[in-house]
Amino acid sequence: MHSSYDPAKIEPLLVELWEKREIFNPDNQDNQDNQDNQANSAKEQSYVMVIPPPNVTGSLHIGHALVNSIQDILIRFNRMSGRKTLWVPGTDHAGIATQMMVEKDLMEKEKITKHDLGRDKFIERIWEWKHRYEGRIKIQLKRLGCSLDWSRERFTLDKQLSKSVNKAFVEFFNQGLIYKGKRLVNWCPVDKTALSDLEVDHIDLKGKIYEINYQLQDGGYITIATTRPETLLGDVALVVHSEDKRYRQYIGKKVIIPLVNREVPIIADDSCDPEFGTGVLKITPAHDFNDFEIGARHNLTPINIFTDDAKINDVYPPLQGLERFAARKKIVDILQKNGQLKSIKEHQHSVAHSQRKKSIIEPRLSEQWFFDVKKFANQALTEIEAGKIKVYPDNQQTILKNWLTGIKSWCISRQLWWGHRIPAYWCQGCKKYFALLEDQLKICPDCQSSQVKQEDDVLDTWFSSGLFPFSVMGWPDKTEDLKLFYPNSSLVTAYDILFFWVARMIMMGIGLTGKVPFAEVYTHGLVRDAKGIKMSKTTGNVINPLDVIEQHGADALRFALCSKTHLANDLKLSDDNIIKSRFFLNKLFNAGKFVKHHNTQLGANDLFDGKDCSNILEKWILYKLYVFVEQTKANIAKYRFHDVAQGIYHFSWHDFCDTYLEITKVWLTSKRGAAEDNRRAHQILNLVFSQILRAIHPITPFLSEYLFRDIYPNEGFLAIAKYSLVKPEWDNFDVTEANEFLAIIGHIRSIRGENDIHPKQLATLRVQNAPAGLIKIFSDEQLVAYELAKLEKIDYSSKLIEQKGWADFSYKNINFQLSLSASLDPKAERARLDKLLAKLVDKRDFLQNKLANPAFKERAPAKLVQETIVKLELVKAELAKLNRS
Predict the structure, then answer these.
(1) CA distances (Å), 876 to each of 4, 751, 769, 836, 843, in order?
(2) How crowded is residue 326: how many other Cβ atoms within 10 Å of its Cβ?
(3) Which helix (H) or strand (E) holds 624?
(4) Residues whose CB falls within 8 Å of the CB of residue 830, separated by 6 or more in sequence, listed in order
């Protein structure tokens, strides 16, 4: 064993070793000697996940480190619990994101555009980019410790997944669910492509309301209010509410649109808000979603006024080619000169922006492909209500259900070159579209004409991602993987892609396989800095996971992320969190050195089974171990990763290192009792430490594997070892007196530490009202008590009187005095007692508030309520004694 743990040297070696032995491939997991799970079939014994495929646009960020650490915890835990596990790796072609990155790269380095290269050559360049960055991502995931089965690696544009996408499109098209239509879409004038509602952010901005006088055909004028005066070029009507007395007489009359001099009708529609502006709205169906709906109801013909980059088209030649906001300024100036601009008022309103480019979205009338998912959304809701899918935490399940309830058709076409080209063809003879599988002859199925042309647009990236849980298993082919590993067991992802990805996987899984794609979904929060601020390069608060791994190791990063993960809450991460995790792992490493030093004759399987255990401190650690392991298992099952990390930290640091390890040192160095006692001490020491390594392995796989293989070199890989070694009967051990004994020792050690008493200075302990059981354990474990508390004498006969040089403390109904140095400062002792008093007051208040909460009494088990009442009474008793002291 190394003198100190060096992650930079050891972690890469273990990655290589795991990969060489292919232990993460489920095909090689049949002979594990750890079958806790007694499922009836191979399907029931499996645990399957697919990675949320990272985009091939660059390196992994801290969010990737979080989601993949959480997934790896689940996979490693289930593998060690005896299940055949499969975690499928893969990457996403990320259509728009990757294409824009490559376009930017070409312009910066070669001063050329995609059009200079042409479609085929440009796509070749993107494939080169993909191979370069996909390789980096693969290395980074391995360095993080992810136990993925790389023999099943997938890419959303590879041959198999393209076949799946092709088949899915054709099936939905033939069912009449995919269609092409001219509708209003979110248009990004920078990327020149349609975007779905989920790719749009709505941001509050300071804007203006312009009141404009429109001339009535028969004289006079009517005033409208708008935030976008430039769109008047596309006005096809004015609308008022039918009950608005101010304008009822104008319904059916005509007005003349400024600048373009177009006559349009004034119509009534009850969607018009009389309270907004003047109560009269201009209707521009080609550039406003609400106007589009009104126009459809009244059979109004939309007029498009913009080019694909949001410049004025030939609808008004004097401004043709002018950018939309420059056109707004120009039109306002013209209206002002013509006397038609009545007023301009400040106005706060929500404006749609492209998530990716941050540009203002332009609603645009465009021919796009749409997918009517309402049928599958309803089926998804039914499955959720039936409990076939559970989303954690509960509030995210409610959010998902609400979104599915109000779902609209999904715009699935994108005006890009990189992606799955839509497998729809236009027949020149029939003048209609049809869809074909990749291996079918490209002829019209109706008229057999070969004069057909494939659609140029590509599918939204999320279409292929929505198939991921089953496409990676070989669907539509009936493969063995599909049979064994679909549906998946669970899915882990950030809450911000609940609609983008999770909802679509559920709908498409139901639509194409008849099954929900996974049983459970865990949504985690986003990683922010220590102040809760979103990480960004401009803010300068980004934590690069690769830098952290190089400096502190992957395990320290993983443990820090796990310990900060509270369900779907955003987590605050700082360098301090990672450093503290590194200190904790160093503590475990040093404990491992001690165990190995006293482990020359024992193996990992030469462990104490708990039978014929009579020593109360040995029973105590076995009981603690049982509770710790069972709580850890329960917390993993409930995705309570913060509680998992805290439980491991508390047991490993406090119960084991600070307490039991110190007890064992006393036993082994004093050579207590018979040889069998010492052998049992060795065995239990190994049992407990081996279990700690097993419990922490899913979170910190490198350190735990390294220590396991170094201390128990003949026991194989920890990654495929049995997770739990505890016995149910240990839960029945009565450890009350052991808890009391150790609590008193803890009090003494605290007092010594607070008073800076040198370890070599031994003390006398006076005890009053000690029960017989406590006296017995202090007698039986005198060596432990004297060594851990640094005592030279325990006096049960002397009266306790206030005396200089002695510290008073109480535990339950027992009073104690501990001798200190003659120079004890009474003020310092009073300060110490005040500090303890404040802690007990806080504890009392916490318990009282808990019991005063009706929800706690109604929902908590009766046993827990009673235990809380008992705890409160004990705290009150301790407070009374401390006040006397």
Answers:
(1) 46, 21, 18, 13, 10
(2) 14
(3) helix 616-637
(4) none
Q: What angle do CA 497, 499, 501 make, to 5 degrees?
A: 60
Contact indicator for 37, 83 with CB cutoff of 8 Å? yes
Q: Is 354 within 8 Å of 199 (Cβ atoms)?
A: yes
Coil, strand or helix at 281: strand
> Residue 65's pLDDT is what?
94
Pair type for strands 791-795 and 806-811: unpaired
**Confidence (pLDDT) at 37:** 47
Q: How far is CA 643 from CA 67, 562, 628, 739, in A?
A: 17, 9, 11, 23
C-alpha distances in Å from residue 718, one per residue of 187, 287, 405, 698? 53, 61, 46, 10
What 3-state class would DSSP assign to 355? coil
The three-class DSSP label of residue 492 is strand
Partner residues linked to 209 by β-bridges: 345
With a CB cutoff of 8 Å and minimum separation 6, the contacts of 767 are: 794, 795, 796, 814, 815, 816
Query: Where do we find the tokens 């369900």?
Result: 567
Sign of the dihedral through C-alpha 154, 159, 162, 164: negative
Q: Could you give the 3-state DSSP secondary structure of residue 259?
A: coil
Question: Quick one: CA torsion of 759, 764, 769, 774, rounded to 10 degrees?
Answer: 50
d(CA 725, CA 712): 15
DSSP state of 55: B
What is the pLDDT, as a whole number, of residue 609? 67
Contact 54, 745 (CB under 8 A): no
- What are 5's two structure tokens? 């743990």
According to DSSP, the β-strands at 362-371 and 410-411 are: antiparallel
- Contact at 8 Å (CB) between 571 and 641? no
* Spatial distance between the Cα atoms of 204 and 353, rounded to a whole number of angstroms: 10
- Per-residue pLDDT, 824: 52
Please tell me the predicted confidence (pLDDT) of residue 438.
86
The 10 Å Cβ neighbour count of residue 93 is 28
Q: Is 205 helix (H, G, I), strand (E, B) or coil?
A: strand
The residue whose two tokens read 């008193």 is 744
Q: Tally the residues of the chain.
A: 885
Cβ proximity of 739 and 777 under 8 Å: no
The first and second tokens of residue 366, run together, are 């465009």
- Cβ–Cβ < 8 Å for 823, 757: no
Mark the ranges of the chain whose per-residue pLDDT is less than 70. Answer: 1, 30-44, 536-538, 600-612, 671-675, 821-826, 863, 885
CA–CA gap between residue 685 and residue 679 (Å, rounded):
10
pLDDT of residue 534: 79
Amino acid in the structure at residue 479? T
Which tokens belong to 517?
């794609």
**Distances in whole angstroms, Cα of residue 80 to Cα of each of 33, 72, 583, 648, 768:** 10, 12, 26, 17, 50
- Structure tokens given for 483: 């049979």
Q: How far apart are CA 93 and CA 464, in angstroms?
A: 9
Report the pLDDT value the prediction gives residue 30, as an integer from 0 to 100: 59
Token pair of 612 as six digits: 């014929």
User: Which segments of 150-248 does DSSP mark as H helices, in order?
Assistant: 159-174
CB 719 within 8 Å of CB 18: yes
Buried b (16+ CB within 10 A) or exposed e, 233-265: bbbbbbbbbeebeebeebbeebbebbbeebebb
Q: Please give the order of strands across the beta sheet that includes 763-768.
A: 791-795, 763-768, 814-819, 806-811
Question: Two tokens at 404?
Answer: 């599915």
In the block, tokens 């555009």 appear at 113
Nearest to 79 by CA among 722, 714, 633, 639: 722
What is the predicted pLDDT for the residue at 600?
58
The amino acid sitting at 94 is: A
Residue reference for tokens 């001798």: 819
Structure tokens at 341: 């601009």
Are 567 and 161 within 8 A, CB to CB?
A: no
Phi, psi of 289 (to 5 degrees): -65, -40
